[in-house]
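Chain X:
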Amino acid sequence: LVEILSGTFEGLTTGTPISLIIRNQTQRSSDYSEIAEYYRPGHADYTFDQKYGFRDYRGGGRSSGRETIARVAAGAVASAILDGLGIELMTYTKSIGNISVDYQKCRKENIQKSPFYMPDLEASIKAEDYLMEQMEHGDSAGGIIECIITGMPAGVGQPVFNKLDACLAKAVMSIGAVKGFEIGDGFHAASSTGSDNNDGFQYIGNRLIKTTNHAGGILGGMSDGSEIVFRAAIKPTPSISKTQSTVNK
């Protein structure tokens, strides 16, 4: 549960800093006592020890996935601000393991209906079966999250030091489980040709639009007025039940 300590009154912001706290009520530090001396594969145990000569083994400390919850809480505030500016974010799970959504079957309203936030409910059912299979084997799975931003005006961002795509990449890559980031066609652009990858321009009435959106809504580090589309690749959860190879301290 989120506790709001300051910055709001009677449902409105007051202009002072908004302070939020989320207490972890279900922590069980004793669960980690047996692995206190071991470097868990896929975790930051080893790198923390090398940098600081000390680590908090009770769940990962600063590198724990729990850290993400503060971003979710603050992100809710940011989303409300963007909504007031007419900028809308639609974020969903594009794939889990080798199960991907079929865009022909995607519906925005399905995102909240799916336990995995997939807009394709058929893919969601397949993903559930796939994850149950991995759990039976003591394993986990990764996936891809896709975000579409609409209502963004053209010209937001800087051409060199504060490129909009670079700022988005830094923010998304700062999430511990993210191992890849792409905008628009992303890595697919590397196997494309310039004539295929370039987005043409045209006028509809007095409004300038692009004929395609391979660039994902950003040109030269600045928004171009079309939808901003980016994806984040999430690694499989490292805490698994399978026997793995490691060493003690």
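Chain Y:
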Amino acid sequence: MKEFKAIIEAYEQYKVAGKNTALATVVQVDGSAYRRPGARMLVSEDGELTGAISGGCLEGDALRKAQTVIFQQKSMLVTYDTTDEDDQKFGVGLGCNGIIHVLIEPIDYQNTINPIELLKIALQDRVFSRLLTVFSVKYSKQEQIGTKILLKGNHVFGDEDKLETPLWEKIQDELKTMDTNHHKIRKYESLDDIQVFIESIKPTIRILLFGAGNDTIPLAKMADILGLEVILIDGRKNLATPTRFPSALKIITGSGEEVVEHLETDEHSAALLMTHNFEYEALVMEELSKLDLPYLGILGPKKKSQKLIERLAKKGIPVNQATIYSPMGLDIGAEGSEEIALSILAEVKAVLAKKQGTFLRNKKGPIHD
């Protein structure tokens, strides 16, 4: 998501400057690759890059092809076969073992539904979206249909007229059974082997950070590096300040009863109780327990969370203990606030991605689903 935002920011700057651009998107990977479908890179006519489609190995060649696309104003599908033992042909050993298909599209600033404008619509609020990109490996030498449609809520943005009726109907049938946590690449052999990359675009993970002490500063900084939204909440106005937490999207101060009234949550939100104030957190947790949060982390020993739960039980307030993580964080032997922040954010990411947070070397099969 952070990469998307960087691309949009660069796009706006190039638009003002009158620089032509092209967008490179990984649309399909067969085998192993550093980046997966959905990775993007914006290329300007003078060779500036924003984003990435690999670990740095393909960018040079993709840059040259993107400049051709900008000059010709025609989309292009490029295939990089890194299964070839002689992978030096790209200028550097890739260290991968897969076939990577990259769609490069010219960006028309006059088109209000160009690929980046569709990304802007997807990110303008916290509503789940699906972006459709149409291409054909079989006819890779021909101009590609490209990124044409964004589905958001009950709205369709883009140029669905570019899709033939049978294809559009098949895509709509496909969407009915798709898992919102995953992308999908569908090949329609009956429609001349045309392929569609159906990309799930979820809202940015929102961190509700309760606690403005010194130990939460590294966590807020790290969350910003990861592109997460941080809402800082605390009762101490002298600590919960923009000076101490410049990356916070919003700062809420007040008593435990007051702050919860200003919270906006959804299924992509995680609450972290790090105030070191039991009474404050008890009041906050009473309200948080009414929300359907996928992650509620409590800093401190397990006894602390048990006491909090017992207090709520005495008030007749049920608590979904399956979503409570206490002590919060992955067991990585963390010491100090920076390592604890790493441990906590890694666990939040794993939980919201529905992963176990285990060693990749123990995983059978490819890294990515």
